[in-house]
Amino acid sequence: MTGLSAMDQWPTGPVDLLIVGGGINGTGIARDAAGRGLSVLLVEQDDLASHTSSASTKLIHGGLRYLEYYEFRLVREALIERERLWGMAPHIIWPLRFVLPQNQSPRPAWIVRLGLFLYDHLGGREKLPGTETVKLASSPFGAGLSPRGGKAFVYSDCWVEDSRLVALNALDAAERGATIRTRARLTGAQRSATGWTADVIDADGLTRQIAARVLVNAAGPWVADVLGRTSGSRNDRGVRLVKGSHIVVPQLYDGDHAFMLQNDDRRIVFAIPYEGNFTLVGTTDEAWGEAPGKAEIGAGETKYLLETIARYFARPVAEADIAWSYSGIRPLYDDKSANASAVTRDYVLDVDAGEDRAPMLSIFGGKITTYRKLAEHAMRELAPFLRDAGKAWTAGAALPGGDMPDADFERFLGGVEVRYPAIPLALLRRLARAYGTRVSAILGEARSVADLGEDLGGGLHVAEVDYLVANEWARTAEDILWRRSKLGLHVPSGTAERLDLYLGQRAAVAA
């Protein structure tokens, strides 16, 4: 395995693809293209997954509610990808059962059951269990609900550590030859008939000129902004920004299942087991009329989610109980829907090219679940301009750490526990979940916890920090505590400051 010191150097000559945006779509395309033998440079103005791609509901799912809007193609594609991605990354993706109570549903039970029948059969489900009907009063699935009566449908989808999925795609891309540069911002790009010349400001404030055959605009909420910085770009595709917010509260119920809750306004809210002692609740859908940027939950969104909890669960939750909240701006393709919840979640790939204009691909919309297929479609759109590219290859190709026999995480974890008997089981499970088969790069020949170096707080040892800096572009405490992990929910006060101090000292030595 090659460290980033060899993988993050600026290219010395022209590249085939310059990709703008370090979210799931940008890193997915970088991985796909690099694996086809193309030279790739990806630039991201912040950290990987700094915005939309770390602010999802963290599901690999078909989008059951999209059936109401007749998005059958999107749902089918997502359902096919669901088990495929699980097999590619079983350490960060795993199945969940979702309970859909009907006692407060605005939809007739027969319509919901019909939708679930389609959901079970549209995408070639093989390993995930199908839908069942339960009586909430007598089923463990009803625990914690208030009122508990009536029936519920129980169906399957998958969970994903979203920001880690981004990091693993970037890592795989880099190990296949791509250059990934974070804290690097595109300021402008000029095109000719044969290619692009782009200006990029790096983390040191230096401007670099990059030559590229193709420019890929995967900037998410900033897609229109990037179009405005490129010469001769048409801008007749609309992007609609929608803010989605989530709250994390103390555990609302017992069990490892999730809930899909239906409100009177027909909107859907999920309640999902999260980080052991918490429940994740979301999402909202609000139109975002400001410039793209860091989003925060609003008072109205907080009230809406707390009212949903009060409507369905017995355990009371007040605003003071919220352990964490996060918000993201979704860059949806503007299909002119009046309702933000009804805006299509499908993606649109727009190729702008001509005899006198080098190609530019702009990406509107998309979902984490369909990112791999989106990347494959993107490469198909660009094939006329990249005739030396190899064939599609990512279907079923494991992501870093996911190459475990039969994609069986528990069996793999058992082997890790045997190899490291002196390391606490909780720490081994967390590390194995985060890094999969790459966990040995952190644990090495450790005979005890002391061999992992100083504990900077909450079981975050220097060995893990060093790995993240060397291999996953982590530069700050926020990168590590909230994107490469969610340790920010667990570490004691002062950990971020200790971590930033260590990172600063480490960077000074490296310089």
Automatic annotation (TrEMBL):
<dbReference type="InterPro" id="IPR006076">
    <property type="entry name" value="FAD-dep_OxRdtase"/>
</dbReference>
<feature type="domain" description="Alpha-glycerophosphate oxidase C-terminal">
    <location>
        <begin position="394"/>
        <end position="490"/>
    </location>
</feature>
<dbReference type="Pfam" id="PF16901">
    <property type="entry name" value="DAO_C"/>
</dbReference>
<keyword id="KW-0560">Oxidoreductase</keyword>
<comment type="similarity">
    <text>Belongs to the FAD-dependent glycerol-3-phosphate dehydrogenase family.</text>
</comment>
<dbReference type="InterPro" id="IPR036188">
    <property type="entry name" value="FAD/NAD-bd_sf"/>
</dbReference>
<feature type="domain" description="FAD dependent oxidoreductase">
    <location>
        <begin position="16"/>
        <end position="370"/>
    </location>
</feature>
<dbReference type="InterPro" id="IPR000447">
    <property type="entry name" value="G3P_DH_FAD-dep"/>
</dbReference>
<dbReference type="InterPro" id="IPR038299">
    <property type="entry name" value="DAO_C_sf"/>
</dbReference>
<dbReference type="Pfam" id="PF01266">
    <property type="entry name" value="DAO"/>
</dbReference>
<keyword id="KW-0274">FAD</keyword>
<dbReference type="GO" id="GO:0004368">
    <property type="term" value="F:glycerol-3-phosphate dehydrogenase (quinone) activity"/>
</dbReference>
<protein>
    <recommendedName>
        <fullName>Glycerol-3-phosphate dehydrogenase</fullName>
        <ecNumber>1.1.5.3</ecNumber>
    </recommendedName>
</protein>
<keyword id="KW-0285">Flavoprotein</keyword>
<dbReference type="InterPro" id="IPR031656">
    <property type="entry name" value="DAO_C"/>
</dbReference>
